Each structure stands twice: as C-alpha cells, then as structure tokens.
Amino acid sequence: MRASRLLSILLLLQSRGLLTARQLADELEVSVRTIYRDVESLHTAGIPLYGEAGHRGGYRLLDGFRTRLTGLTAQEARALFLAGMPGPAAELGLGALAAAAELKIEAALPRELREGSRSVREHFHLDAPGWYHDGDRVPRLPDVADAVWNRRVIRVRYSRWAAPYEVDRRLEPYGLVLKAGRWYLVARCDGAMRTYRVGQILTLQVTGETFERPGGFDLAGHWSAYLADFRSRLFQGRATVRLSPAGRERLAQLMGSAVIGAVDETAGPPDTRGWITATVPVESPAHALTEFLKLGAEVEVLEPAELRRLMAETAHALAALYPRTGQVATDPLTTDPLTTGGGPPRPVPPIGSSAGPTAR
Q: Is the full-model pTM beyond 0.70?
C-alpha cells in the first residue's frame, strides 16, 4: 500500500508540477504528516525531489527527471477503457483503479499532450442518464462485474414484469452493458442468451463454478443484434390518429423515432384548423393509451376501435374527476357524487364530436 502511494506521489509531481503537502494529502486521502514521511523516503531512495518554501511553495521534481514506472496492472488496464466515465467506473467498483490508470497515462505523456488531455476533461462531460431518470440503484453491480471478469456462475433471484414476478436463475455472465443510465447483464441461462436488468436482481450468490466464454463472442455485436430483434418485435400494431399542430410538436419531443418518422411519412394535408391524420406504430392498446395521453386533447385516436374505446373511457373518467366550476365531481367508476353543489355532472361528449379536439 505504501509503495503504491510513493509511486502515486512521484507520478502526481511528474504530471502536475509543483504541489503542496496539503494538495498531495488531499489527493491521496492521507494526512499531511504521512506525506512528509513519504517525501523523506523518496529523498532517501535518491529521487531528485525538493521543496520550495513560502506561500507559493511546495514539492517538485528536478527539471528533466521522469520516471519510467508507468506500467499498468491488469486491473488498471481494464479500468482504462472506463477512465473517461468516472460514474460507471465507480459503480463497477473500479473508481480508484480508473483514477490510477489515468494518472499513469498522464504522467507518461509529453507536456503538450498532457495539457491536451486535461483540456478534454475541462471541456467535455458525459452524463448518460436521461433528464427524468438518474439511473438504477445497482448495489449488486460490483459483484456481477466481478463474476463477469472471473467467469463465475452466479445464482440470482430476479424481479420481472410478468407472473411469476420473482424467479430464480442460474446464470453464466458474459458481459455488462450500460444503456441510458441502466445496467444490463448479458448472460447464458438454460443454454440460451438472455438479458437481465441489473437493478432488478434481488439476491445474488457467487457459486464455485466457472464457465468457458466462447472465444468468438462479441458483446457489442450481440447487443446490436439484440436491439434490432427487440425493435422488430416492439411494434405489433398500427393506430390512425389526428394531431393538432401543438400535438405534433409535442409528439416529436416525447415519443421515439419510429413514431415520429411514421407521422412524417403518413401525414395527410392539414384541415382548416391545421390538424393532420397519420398512421403510427404501437406496441399494444394499453401501452399506446399511456403514450397518447401525454398529448392530452391535442390527439384523437380514430382506430383501432379498442384503443379509441380506452381513450374515451379515460377521458370520461378524467372529466368526472375534474368537473367545471359549479359542477359535482363524481366517482368515475360509480358516477356517485364526490362533492356537493351545482347540480348533476355534465355529460362528457364522445371523442370526435363537436366538443372534441376539432372544436378547440
């Protein structure tokens, strides 16, 4: 541990120039007194390290001195490819290793290239999760990553969307993928390749078994094929909708490229109020309902009939919950009054009538 810290001091001074004992202590998370002892040890070992007194003083290496001790360990080499992503590296348990690898590389670079590498960090920052999601909580990710590195079989209890909602699985973990702030495990289960969301692993046990990962397995290629297959199965139906100008603009902000592209390709000429009719792909009526509700009264579903019925039922239920001033709110399931005053609730016209989107 101490030898590693002495090397880190040497590399820090080589890459950054003049540093105070406090700066070194903060960087290495030790006390200033420990830095004093380490500097004395480096002096004794013949390292041309000297101190400058005063307010702007500190430690520096003799001009022209460079260490060749920049070899990477196997673990640091793995962390190297994550050095530009400190958040994911830390989640994998490789934060310290990634920092050490970056420091060694920086120390080995000529001064002009070193300044360029610092400039990259100062001008570019990766924030993978979306605006409305900070990523999954993945307390078991380091254990999963360790099993991936060491090709160890794991047994997990996994929470899924369909019944039975909790299942036990024996997995051979091939690789991890970070997509939109969420970690996914690609693993072999019962002879077939499967994908599991790491945040939904409830319990994990590392077994004493190991497995052989096929030499020709390409994680990136497998993931691309998986996404292509997923997208081909994603949209199983079509819906014909009418969109207001505001609805079309909002759709472009809230929905995926397949839906946006379909609107652009199939939109007919606008009517006198600017509404257009288009045909878009949908997963299922239930999923399409949640998506189209995001557009509020700026969309009218024409078909399929089941989706139109779901939209109408939801519109009636919302109208019953939010009556106009002076009306009685009713339970949308029983039509019983929820409050008093103002007389009976006003009937909600069906979608597409004169009080629908075309009458806005």
A: no
